[in-house]
Amino acid sequence: MEGMAALHTAVLGAFYNQLKGGVVVSCGDNYMLAIEFDGPYGNGGIEGEMVFVDNNTSAQAVVRERRCHRATELGRNFLAGETIQYIDITNESDFFNLLSKYKLQARWEGLIDVKSGLRLYAVRITK
Hints:
Largest sheet: 6 strands, mixed
Radius of gyration: 13 Å
Order of helices and strands: HEEEHHEHEE
Strand content: 35-45%
Strand order of the largest sheet: 4-1-2-3-6-5
């Protein structure tokens, strides 16, 4: 999969195909974005809860402490028991562009995801 727009489309597509569950976007062993879908938002958007692992040292420590070899393993812990679509990419630039886009639409309300130990963000992803 090439390009941030294609990744964004794939995330939206995962929701509209499943209507439940979530999506994990993984880039290599360290970087992960996991979104658990809550429902539709507006015209062609998604409301959900998001955690991400990037080059933040505390986030990397969570991955190591949980003895996860890949970020996708942490994604399974976050979305345990749900229907998950995995998207693995190799282009770090595309990954971080997508992450930045979603961070702009996210807010943190002081909640920590108990399964991963990472900050849990409310996110509205628009078409």
